[in-house]
Amino acid sequence: MLGIDFGDTLKKLGLSAAIEIIKRQKRILISDTTLRDGEQAPGAGLNVEKKLAIAQQLDKLGVDCIEAGFPASSKEDFEACRLISANVKRPMISALSRCHKTDIKLAAESLGNAGHWSISLFLGTSPILRKYSLNKSKEEVIETLKDAIKFAKGFTNNLAFGAEDATRTEPEFLYKVCKEALDSGAVVIGLPDTVGWLLPEQVKKMIEGVKKNVPGLRKAFLATHFHNDLGLAVANSLAAVECGANIVQCTINGLGERAGNASLEELVMALKTRKDYYKAALNIDARQFFKTSKLVEELTGIKVSPNKPIVGRNVFASEAGIHQAALLRSRATYQILKPEDVGQEGITLVLGRHSGKHAVYDRLHKLGYRLAAERDENKLEEIYQRFKEIAVTKKEVSDGELAGIASEVLEGK
Ligand code: MN
Questions:
Q1: CB atoms < 10 A from the CB of 413, how many?
Q2: pLDDT number for residue 1
Q3: Which pLDDT tens digit goes with each residue over 370-387?
């Protein structure tokens, strides 16, 4: 753990003081939904034991909240929430729930053993969801959410309400929904971009509008949940942070429905690397990123692409000659992130057709060949030329192959 723990603050100060202090400190709370939205990705299904293993790693990573599942959706989800609550005590454990009494009861029952727990209620608010998913009028939507929040307050005060498809909801109606949810007792207002519709500039407009028109929000948390259908989930989350969002929901490896959710590791590294700009305080131990990503990759079976920011295999590899030569002098030339800061091993210079002499000579030196440029210029040149001949025929020249070339040249073969 690196900074102030949200659970501890909550325990010591109580809910309203904790909200106030977290806001004053510009703390961004990271809510991970790998086990709920992430697991909804086609083919990602996780059994209960695997979910617990991921939750324990998320705890080590330092996330503030783990959305452990949707207990009413299946017995397995209920059991996963129960098991995680019993075994992972530091972070807030939350469960998703429709605005139904049976869902709320199951959520509360599954989380009862947690150190801290909360229920995340959701209800569609956009015209399209009101009409085709709920068949409810605006008035009925308001009544439903009020009743559900009041009922859920019988179990816990840690209540989040998310206006599903908030980003396609009429602004005036969205303000009314937020106001009614807060008046009924919600302490977190979620504005999920359920279908990945919004653009960063519009995120700012939406949040400014809600802040201006819903004064009660000053005493509550504002949460986001962006989808990546247009590749904007991280950019939109960052825009929201800039406008004062307190909780950002995201997933490891950006897993989630369709194109996925905002990637936790990308979002956090943007906030950390550009602290000069965002000035946000976080509680995440980024050195756990690579390990966490690999665990999620292994347990879900969904592969991380090599160029995936932060955790991809190629992120700290370089093949281009000019870049390699500069990186050997100073890695700040072409790398803004340090591999050890995110738990990756080190910068790899891949020897291939784009590599130049600098990288090849450097690798020879690392392999133990002590050749001096002045004295052995001809030999070095010959090794490099032979390397190039092989490099054009394949993707990568291995250390063994390079050593083979060097030995042949030095032995005069
Ligand atoms: Mn979602």
A1: 7
A2: 40
A3: 877 677 888 889 999 999
Residues 233 and 260 occupy one common structural domain:
yes
**How close is the Cα of 227 to the center of ligand 1, in Å?**
6
Report the pLDDT value the prediction gives residue 147, as an integer from 0 to 100.
98
Whether residues 143 and 43 fall in one domain: yes
Residue for token digits 């617990």?
52
* pLDDT tens-digit map of 302-327: 999 999 999 998 898 877 888 878 88
Q: Are residues 227 and 328 in the same domain?
A: no
The whole-number pLDDT of residue 75 equals: 96
> What is the separation of C-alpha 99 from the centre of its chain, rounded to a whole number of angstroms?
27
CA of 233 to the centre of ligand 1 (A): 11
CA-based angle 102:108:114, to the nearest 5? 160
* pLDDT score for 9: 84
Contacts of 307 (CB under 8 A, 6+ apart): 314, 315
Give residue 103 CA to ligand 1 midpoint distance, Å: 18
Domain-embedded: residue 312: no
Helices 377-391 and 399-410 meet at what angle, rounded to 10? 140
Which domain does 405 fall in, by range? Answer: 317-410
Instruction: Give domain status of residue 305, yes or no.
Output: no
pLDDT given at position 2: 44
Low-confidence ranges of the chain (pLDDT < 50): 1-2
Distance 164 CA to ligand 1 centre (A): 9
CA-based max dimension of the chain: 88
**Minimal CA–CA distance to 118: which of 162, 181, 67, 166?**
67
Same domain, 281 and 395: no
Tell me the CA–centroid distance for residue 275 and ligand 1, in Å.
Answer: 27
